[in-house]
Design brief:
499 residues; 75% helix; globular
């Protein structure tokens, strides 16, 4: 079964089961069991050993995965601290006075997501913890909040030259200036740009469709969760101080952003003489984020204790509570990483690469559109955008395309990777968005999917044109006009008005 279509079956099994049963843990586990059986040719004893040794243990002992888990726990602790200090409650009251409407709340959430562009994990959890009290008070559904978080995480990082994603892309393309290629590809990254345009359009013109409309209609009546996905209340997250002010939320968030940026450029050699851009291009986000967040945590401890809003005991008690708050995303991530690792052992990457290499060379004009579709399928199946462009970019660069077509095809690869990642229930960014919004994970996936697929369809048409026109402004203009036409058509013909 190695490097055949069967190598993609285990993740597809997990995805389909998750969407049908709306239960992610068992679905991922069945996908893992399927992969282990395929690897060992259905030798049950060997499959059982493989599942743990090459699956769970290997994924949880991977240095980059451990770094992300540490970052999650620290971030959970910081969120608990901000809540205990009364910072979140104070910000909620302040924002309610300043932001008067649901539309203003949605645009403020979007703006914050765009501002925090350095890393998608960091974006998901920070935007969620800051904006959740505000969106709740304006009756925005948790599913809509999760969509806004997810749609301003990976898509924004993928068009930001200073981000962990730019660093990852630059590191994949060997023998050329990867960062320059990344920057040149930004105007052609249709999925990311159109996703941002979609958020602005659906917010300004109040366009909701699919399951999201049901969630939003229910939220306006006071039910933020709709289909039984409510996250249980946790008294440990309640404020213990009545001295909380907006500064008790603003200061920790600012310190966290600065510390994480410093941590990332530190791992890229900035303090050893490297310039800022190159330091970001060469950084190790899985090390830089825990380094930065740990330093921020110490500063936040000192700040709260110095202001006497929290005692030392309150601060120390936030560690286990922060860990507890992150148990669900940690479990889902652990399962997803294990499934991804076993899928890689089955040769999924080699299978897709072989198909692509065999057909790409003779399809010059349609190549961007084909690469876009292949990247979507691979990222959706494996749940990793980084792994997707890590597989496809070297192939694209190796085809020796003429200059502008090469840039467009690279952009299509990156856009497809983000799109597939955006749609996949086993994607770590999708999981983080659910965690940040404290939204049921399957609710988030099922409500987000129609929006992502609509933007993907418009992007595909754009890339069909791009292979022949090869002008960024013309392609963007046509794609934006088409997006507007489709969205307003959906509002006019498919959205049923409320009674």
């Amino acid at each position: 079964m190695y490097a055949t279509f069967w190598s993609l079956v285990p993740p597809l099994v997990a995805i389909i089961l998750a969407l049908i049963t709306k239960e992610v843990y068992s679905s991922l586990f069945i996908g893992i069991v399927t992969a282990a059986l395929f690897i060992t040719n259905f030798d049950v004893a060997s499959a059982y050993t493989t599942m743990f040794n090459d699956g769970f243990i290997a994924s949880l002992s991977d240095a980059s995965h451990v770094g992300i888990l540490i970052f999650l726990v620290i971030l959970g602790t910081i969120v608990v601290l901000m809540n205990k200090a009364g910072g979140s409650a104070a910000y909620g009251k302040w924002a309610q006075e300043k932001i008067k409407t649901r539309k203003g709340t949605l645009l403020a959430t979007f703006a914050l997501g765009v501002l925090i562009f350095v890393d998608d994990y960091f974006n998901c959890l920070t935007v969620g913890s800051v904006m959740r009290p505000v969106t709740d008070k304006h009756n925005v559904s948790r599913a809509k909040l999760a969509y806004l978080i997810d749609a301003t995480a990976a898509p924004v990082c993928m068009i930001a030259p200073i981000s962990s994603w730019a660093a990852a892309v630059a590191g994949v393309v060997e023998g050329t200036d990867g960062l320059t290629l990344f920057i040149n590809a930004i105007p052609y990254n249709l999925y990311s740009l159109l996703t941002i345009a979609t958020i602005i359009l659906i917010t300004c013109f109040d366009i909701d469709f699919g399951l999201m409309k049901k969630h939003e209609d229910n939220a306006k009546k006071g039910d933020l969760f709709t289909s039984g996905g409510q996250v249980a209340g946790d008294s440990s997250m309640d404020a213990v101080s009545d001295k909380g002010k907006v500064i008790d939320l603003a200061f920790p968030v600012i310190v966290l952003i600065i510390s994480c940026i410093v941590g990332m450029i530190y791992t890229g050699g900035f303090f050893e003489g490297e310039n800022f851009v190159n330091a970001f291009a060469n950084c190790d986000a899985s090390l830089g984020l825990p380094l930065g967040s740990a330093a921020a945590l110490l500063i936040i401890f000192a700040f709260y204790i110095g202001r006497r809003v929290l005692s030392f005991k309150d601060c120390m008690g936030s560690f286990p509570e922060g860990f507890k708050a992150m148990i669900s995303p940690i479990l889902i991530l652990s399962f997803a990483w294990t499934l991804s690792g076993l899928t890689k052992m089955l040769g999924a990457a080699e299978y897709v690469s072989a198909i692509f290499e065999g057909s790409a060379a003779g399809l010059t004009g349609m190549l961007p559109a084909i690469v876009f579709l292949v990247a979507i399928f691979l990222a959706f199946s494996t749940g990793t955008s980084w792994g997707t462009f890590g597989i496809l970019l070297p192939i694209v660069v190796g085809i020796n395309l003429p200059g502008n077509l090469l840039i467009i095809t690279i952009a299509a690869c990156l856009a497809g990777a983000v799109c597939g990642d955006h749609c996949s229930p086993i994607s770590d960014t999708t999981i983080m968005a659910s965690a940040g919004a404290q939204c049921d994970h399957i609710n988030h996936v099922s409500t987000q999917l129609p929006y992502a697929l609509l933007v993907a369809a418009v992007s595909f048409v754009g890339y069909c044109i791009a292979g022949f026109v090869q002008n960024a402004w013309i392609i963007l203009a046509i794609s934006l006009v088409l997006l507007c036409v489709v969205l307003f058509a959906v509002k006019k013909f498919l959205v049923i008005p409320e009674d």
